[in-house]
Amino acid sequence: MTHRDKAGTVCNLKIVTLLVALSPELLFLGAGVQLRDNGYDGLLVAINPQVSEDQNLIPNIKEMITEASFYLFNATKRRVFFRNIKILIPATWKANHYSQVKQESYEKANVIVTDWYGAHGGDPYTLQYRGCGKEGKHIYFTSEFLLNDDLTAGYGSRGRVFVHEWAHLRWGVFDEYNNEKPFYINGQNQIKVTRCSSDIVGMFVCEKGPCPEENCIISQLFQEGCMFIYNSTQNTTSSIMFMQSLSSVVEFCNSSTHNQEAPNLQNQMCNLRSTWDVISDSSDFNHSFPMNGTALPPPPTFSLVQAGDKVVCLVLDVSSNMAEADRFLRQQQAAEFYLMQIVEIHTFVGIVSYNSKGEIRTQLHQINNDDDRKLLVSYLPAMVSSEAETSICSGLKRGFEVAEKLNGRAYGSVMILVTSGIDEHISDCLLTVFRSGSTIHTIALGSSADNNLEELSHLTGGLKFFVPDKSNSNSMIDAFSRISSGTGDVLQQCIQLESVGENVEPHHQLKNTVTVDNSVGNDTAFLVTWQTSGPPEMVLSDPNGRKYFTRNFIINQALRTARLWIPGTAKPGLWTYVLNNTHHSRQALKVTVTSRASRSAQPPATVDAFVEKDSTSFPHPVMIYANVRKGFYPVLNATVTATIEPETEDPVTLKLFDDGAGADVIKNDGIYSR
């Protein structure tokens, strides 16, 4: 987080080995920000859709990053600068002179501009969830910070602030100040000001104005009402991670200027190492050298992109491999769930199936009401083919054709690719896939799914999922529920409240409760799925005791789904469901509950789960993280558990913690880790 100067005005894991020969054009694609020839390419800034349209905002973003580029270049001793930046404009903004997005989306942004304030107030900050030297997730700026020039008196220029936050994000260094411990006792038993470097000077201020040190420090106790105000004019040149607002500060603290005694996060997280030592050990610096000469790099170039109509195409596997382990039925159930509950209103949706060849089942239909959703469900493939061969490239080619029907290109479209087979020719279409401008989310069913599949997601910035062949696993529906529109508008997105699967013995029941928070409740739906025979006997009770029975559910016998929509806004509190297996054989029963925000002014609680890396081997651990928030406020003291589903073994459940111990970096930041 940026320090404000007091001197002025105040998932599912699958182990895979990727063996794909990439063409030179693909070598640097699909990996976010890349450093090439000392310049950063691919930096993405996204403006939250809740931010009101203001044409002053974009020039200020450009000015900030341009200044930051030169400041960063000098601070890193001529090593790095910003070359190419894209700014993602909300679809709600009406000006139409922006370029069409390709694979850019809000979730992929490195920098987010928002109107919502969080735990840090209006201060710029970076979400860091890993340890020293590890990249963070996003930088956050408020539109107020970018538009109100009066704030620069406290923060310093916006370009300097950007470099401070970039060092958090890219290189995993931490703040060198500590607002909670502005003073400390050094090794000589003296009270000192928390700062870096120690050469930064200032004065003590008491309640009535400047005062000598002895009036503030009595018997080694700092007196209430005293402050230390830093002089606006300094001779020292460091440090950017302490107070970038000082005009003399143009460097990071190094081994000779670093204050190892200061009780700050940098010392705590990085084992007393200076910020420059950590930065110098980064992969950026291991693969770059200072630029020759004295000339400055060129200023950054900016591209303004905006999403058009939302276009999604389901690319579904119908090969004979799908007949195994009820894969085809689970694909149908998950696709129907996505079409009926997840995909947002006004989205254009098409459906393609494939085995050795691709087939267009329906061209794009725009979803404007429930009848449109039901019509799309009717186009889902009804049976598997006799062919075992799968041609993923053929399926994707048909998907691109469907997307291109709207405006001649597939730019900004989304492909949801489901597959269960091996395809040795995926590499044949990697370049076509990237050039399409489409984002591909891949869902691999069973251990026979092709290991090279994930490269499609990597190249296009899509999500990747693995679904085990287990009758009681709800992973297929969970995967579809994670695929959002990519606009960043959480007020319009579907929130999954419950996902449970269990093998229920004859004449036994599955019983559980679901909490509906008062921030959600609109468009609430309970979905029950089963694998064999008829539906279970279902009873649902709301917090006031009103009951819904099997007869109240809409039952689709062909897909083996039962759905109950709650009219209006669902009552907040505990909802209880009971599923009775009335059959003479064991049933795999699964329950999924979804809802949407109840009020436009109050964002719902959301959970964003991710792992540090998605492939590993013994004995190297995988770190699991869950970012639990309401808007930009962390949700504290939550009970967070992660379920890991191996390919063949039973699921493993782990409790995640936000206590600052073990894998958890910072206590009470809303990032729960294990």
UniProtKB/TrEMBL annotation:
It is a single-pass type I membrane protein. Keywords: Autocatalytic cleavage, Calcium, Cell adhesion, Cell junction, Cell membrane, Chloride, Glycoprotein, Hydrolase, Ion transport, Membrane, Metal-binding, Metalloprotease, Protease, Signal, Transmembrane, Transmembrane helix, Transport, Zinc. GO terms for cellular component: anchoring junction; basal plasma membrane. The keyword Zinc applies. Residues 311-483 form the VWFA domain. Its main location: membrane. It comes from the Eukaryota. It is found in: Basal cell membrane; Cell junction. GO terms for molecular function: intracellularly calcium-gated chloride channel activity; metal ion binding; metallopeptidase activity. It holds the Pfam family VWA. One of its GO terms (biological process) is cell adhesion. The keyword NAD does not apply. InterPro entries: CLCA_N, CLCR, VWF_A, vWFA_dom_sf. SUPFAM superfamilies: vWA-like. Belongs to the CLCR family. Plays a role in modulating chloride current across the plasma membrane in a calcium-dependent manner, and cell adhesion. Involved in basal cell adhesion and/or stratification of squamous epithelia. May act as a tumor suppressor in breast and colorectal cancer. Plays a key role for cell adhesion in the beginning stages of lung metastasis via the binding to ITGB4. This is Calcium-activated chloride channel regulator 2. It comes from Molossus molossus. The lineage of its organism: Eukaryota, Metazoa, Chordata, Craniata, Vertebrata.
